[in-house]
Amino acid sequence: MAAQLDRKLERTNELLQRMLAEVAKTPSTHAIFVDAGYVYAAAGLLVTGTEDRRSFDLDAEGLIEAFIDKARTIFADSRLLRVYWYDGARRRIHTAEQQSIAELPDVKVRLGNLNANNQQKGVDSLIRSDLESLARHRAISDAALVGGDEDLVSAVEAAQGYGARVHLWGIEAAGGRNQAEPLLWEVDSQRTFDLDFCKPYVTRRPVTMYEEGPAPSREDVRFVGARIAATWLSERGRAALADLLPGHPYLPGSVDQDLLIEAERLLQCSLRGHADLRRALRDGFWQHLQSQY
Predict the structure, then answer these.
(1) Tens digit of pLDDT for each residue in 25-58?
(2) CA atoms of 89 and 110, how far apart (whole Å)
(3) Which of the residues 126, 163, 217, 292 has an alpha carbon 20 to 30 A from that of 26?
(4) How far apart are CA 193 and CA 67, in angstroms?
(5) d(Cα 229, Cα 248) in Å, to the nearest integer?
């Protein structure tokens, strides 16, 4: 009986040794998970002083390549699985910029939604799903997470629960922090990219200047407001309209800014010094939306 037990133990040890040998020969694998909303806001603020995407251009291809190079240095004995780029889009339909990013080698674009206030929805859950799935299937041993939202804590914990190490990468904040403390506490390591690292990939857009000329009539501006409202409604749908209507007569700041910029483009003149015309613009915008409800 004792001899039989010894043989079983010996056989078990052989199997364990064989398994450990196979694991030792398997190369480590890492992936990079980028919250694009965080990157745009943090890098834009650091380099240009604003988080507004319309005020600057981000060389996403160059920045992704820089992240890959940095990971290659940090995870020297590991191979890259891919870069995951998480962003928001209306109805989860790729913009032209997002399409070009999706075509890059070793990059996968994952889209959440954008609400009426241009806020991302569903991005954190996508990051958690991918992180947890890859860690569970032993597809990655290390994850570089570029983000700062506290909601990512659950994603970090899920990946760590399956044995993956999660490394938080951030962008230098001009003042204070732009990453949640609970997130900083949970990760296995932290790294911050400074102004010199980000500056080559962020370029401020030139301010559009319009020639001085006669101001348009209130009716012309009101008509343009209604025209923009029609486009806004067709792009965002009735659900976004239902969210917007309770705020009448006020518009969320991001919607009001988009309305002003598009109106100035269509009218080819500035409305910045004409409070009465800006009121007419909003009146036309609201009038059309209310007529469609």
Answers:
(1) 557 999 999 999 999 999 999 998 888 887 889 9
(2) 10
(3) 126
(4) 10
(5) 14
